[in-house]
Amino acid sequence: MNEGNYTISDHCTLYDIDKTDSHGIPIRYADNSTQTIATRFVLIGVALSCYVYGKYAILSINGLRKHKNYDFLFSFTAAAFACANNINDLIAFVYPPESCYVFWTIFKASATLNWAPISWLQAFRLMIISKIYLPKKGYYIISIMTISLSCIYCTFYFFNLSLFDYTTNPITGCGVTNPGTYSYYVMVSDIVDSCFAFTAICTLIYRSIKDLRELNTKNQKLNDLISLGVVELLIITVSKIIIYPLIALTSYIPALDIFWDVLSVINYLWLQFS
After folding, report:
1. What's the CA angle centered on 189, arms 186 and 192, to 5 degrees?
2. Which domains does the chain have, with CATH numbers?
3. Cα pseudo-dihedral 107, 108, 114, 117, rounded to 10
4. What contacts 24+ positions apart, CB below 8 Å, involve 199-202?
5. pLDDT at residue 84 tops 70
6. Cα separation, 89 vs 70, whole angstroms
7. CA 19: distance to chain centroid?
8. Number of helices (H), then strands (E), in the chain
9. What is the pLDDT of residues 54-68, one digit of tens each?
């Protein structure tokens, strides 16, 4: 689910009928307008990302069973809800319903926990790392800040989710609309959260190795940080900082709605390997 305006056009159709042949039968020309082609690309992205989410949901369940690590609950919840969200899109495309109310209900229900758990896991991991490598005062500061920023992001996210409404669409069957009241607040709050996490991680790495003299000791300390998922956490924070501005700049270009799926796939890669 993207968090901003749904960009699939409501004015494009599969065919344009504007002429008839010698027998009076309408000649059907395929609609290959820019918006229609963009919609097709978006649907391809939805199908591919649906596979990714489903795969990670299964891997998360397997990880939970094998390792008894309840961190996998974050990844399973996010991936399962994201997969359900995309399956809902695909069903509406393959077999358009008479009323889009059910589509809208499933859309909102599945969108409740497909992004928020990622923010919670990011905060949780940052708190664990800071507890190991910082004194109590630093740990409390990091914890309060990361929890506060995650709560702010989730607040804007759910406000934005509440504004989605449904509409019919000649290509996809059903779609959703959003006035965009909170869309940029969602992106900005997540960027701020990610920037804070990035700064905190870099500070933690510096503090953990600055007083170490021997190279082997430094390498061991860095390996310990890597085992705690620091590299993955850095990747997701940098990805958000780079991709969110691209989403904001291209929000009115239908095909580039795919940036949402790119970001979400990176999120789930991090969830799986962190």
Report:
1. 150
2. 15-273 (1.20.1070)
3. -170
4. 200/126, 200/130, 200/142, 200/145, 200/146, 201/126, 201/129, 201/230, 201/233, 201/234, 201/237
5. yes
6. 30
7. 44
8. 9, 4
9. 988 898 898 888 888
- List, in order, residues 6 or more apart from 155 with CB less than 8 Å away: none
Indicate yes or no: pTM above 0.90.
no
- Read off the pLDDT of residues 201-259 as tens digits, 9 standing for 90 and up: 888 877 777 766 655 565 666 666 665 567 767 777 788 888 888 777 766 655 455 66
Go through the chain and tell me how many residues it has: 274
Given a contact cutoff of 8 angstroms between Cβ atoms, the answer to whether 129 and 204 are in contact is yes
Alpha-carbon gap, residue 122 to 167, rounded angstroms:
34
Which token pair is 245? 């501005």
| Of 185, 125, 137, nearest in space to 160 by CA | 185
Phi first, then psi: give them for residue 188, nearest 5 degrees. -65, -45
